[in-house]
């Protein structure tokens, strides 16, 4: 009887510590998601300034500027919806926005006055800095998400996760279209 009580206590302690590890990893993944959110907000706030500067010089790129504005609006709506539940859709929108912004930066090269404009140079520098921070935040989020995923998919974590109703958090992945090399001609058509 004594061994039975000791074994039960050991099993309960083991399950408790596993539960605590799952909660800790989930919280770390949510914190990393918030880190991405902060960096994406910086980029979203930077976009109007870049577009305002570019619009003065880029008459032939109105459709690209409009697409970026539309995507920014969609991203902001997705961000307001919040949480990691809609993260997959938001990540898709962010990837599309990033692709269009990259196209804008390529298109800037065709406008010497814009390319050398002090405000545009500063905006490009800040944009590059923000993109580096976004990349770092994505790596951090994916690592935290993987640790959380591992914790809820390995026995006995899978049982605990099922009892808690936990689902793996989506990875931030680059869409298949984003993996293709950028063709500058696609962004330079009037």
TrEMBL record:
Q: Note the Gene3D superfamilies from the entry.
A: LemA-like domain
Tell me which InterPro entries the record gives.
LemA-like_dom_sf, MamQ_LemA
Q: Which Pfam families match?
A: LemA
Q: SUPFAM superfamilies attached here?
A: LemA-like
| Membrane topology term | Single-pass membrane protein
Q: Where is it chiefly localized?
A: membrane
Query: Is the keyword Transmembrane helix in the record?
Result: yes
Q: Where in the cell is it found?
A: Membrane
GO CC terms = membrane
Q: Which UniProt keywords apply?
A: Membrane, Transmembrane, Transmembrane helix
Into which family does the record put it? Belongs to the LemA family.
Kindly provide the name given to this protein in its UniProt entry.
LemA family protein
Q: What is the lineage of its organism?
A: Bacteria, Pseudomonadati, Pseudomonadota, Gammaproteobacteria, Cellvibrionales
């Amino acid at each position: 009887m004594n061994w039975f009580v000791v074994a039960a206590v050991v099993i309960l302690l083991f399950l408790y510590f596993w539960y605590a590890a799952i909660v800790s990893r989930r919280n770390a993944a949510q914190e990393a998601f918030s880190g991405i959110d902060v960096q994406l907000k910086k980029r979203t706030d930077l976009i109007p300034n870049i577009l305002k500067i570019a619009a003065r010089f880029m008459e032939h790129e109105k459709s690209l500027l409009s697409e970026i504005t539309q995507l920014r609006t969609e991203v902001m709506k997705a961000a307001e919806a919040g949480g990691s539940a809609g993260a997959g859709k938001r990540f898709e929108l962010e990837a599309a926005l990033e692709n269009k912004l990259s196209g804008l930066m390529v298109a800037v090269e065709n406008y010497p006055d814009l390319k050398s404009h002090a405000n545009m140079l500063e905006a490009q520098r800040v944009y590059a800095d923000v993109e580096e921070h976004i990349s770092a935040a994505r790596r951090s989020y994916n690592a935290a998400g993987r640790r959380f995923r591992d914790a809820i998919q390995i026995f006995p974590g899978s049982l605990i996760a099922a009892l808690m109703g936990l689902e793996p958090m989506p990875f931030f992945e680059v869409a298949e279209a984003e993996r293709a090399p950028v063709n500058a001609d696609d962004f330079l058509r009037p």
